[in-house]
Design goal:
The chain has about 180 residues and is of the alpha/beta class. Helices cover about 30% and strands about 25% of the residues. β6 and β7 form a beta hairpin. α4 runs parallel beside α5.
Length: about 180
């Protein structure tokens, strides 16, 4: 796996050799950041369920001010540390190791992120619901959820509305922004 673009373009990243960690495919990552580029510079970016850290590292490479990488898996957290150290971006990243729902709630209470990328294990549907409830109650300008294409996420969650859906094969990205809730 490599960083796709930005100041670390083509730099190799270590990955996790585990069935518990599913990396975001390069093509989907490229699509994600093509969409995000106009609003990425200077942002606080949260990469929840970070895996190897590729999405958060890509955000920093492309101009995010800081990336918070949240990962519970010990092997994945070690890979993230190594990738961050290799690129020399320790001051531009924060690794939080623990339950994503707890860490996410703590980060949202302490900081004002601009973008949150959420990519729970596909089979753990409850993680989507729990994280979306936390994010739906927080004033986050943009939330992006990676999910299986066959999974349909709600059009609205608390104060957030789905504004875009991108499908690539088995993977999809749902984009949520704050918006007025319309009655059903």
């Amino acid at each position: 796996m490599r960083v796709i673009a930005g100041r670390f373009r083509s730099r190799k990243l270590k990955t996790v050799d585990s069935l518990q960690v599913r990396p975001t495919p390069d093509r989907l990552r490229e699509t994600l950041f093509s969409i995000l580029m106009p609003r990425l510079a200077g942002t606080l970016f949260i990469d929840a369920y970070a895996g190897s850290g590729a999405v958060g590292i890509e955000a920093v490479s492309r101009g995010a001010r800081h990336a918070v990488l949240i990962e519970k898996n010990g092997q994945a957290a070690a890979v993230i540390k190594d990738n961050v150290r290799t690129l020399g971006i320790e001051d531009e990243t924060t690794l939080l190791r623990g339950s994503v729902t707890k860490e996410l709630a703590d980060v949202l209470a302490a900081r004002k992120p601009d973008v949150v990328f959420l990519d729970p294990p596909y089979e753990r549907v409850g993680e989507y619901t729990d994280c979306m409830a936390i994010l739906g109650a927080a004033p986050v300008p943009l939330v992006i959820v990676q999910h299986p294409s066959k999974m349909v996420l709600p059009e609205r969650v608390h104060h957030m509305s789905k504004v875009r859906l991108v499908r690539q094969g088995d993977n999809s990205l749902s984009f949520y922004e704050p918006g007025l809730l319309m009655p059903l």
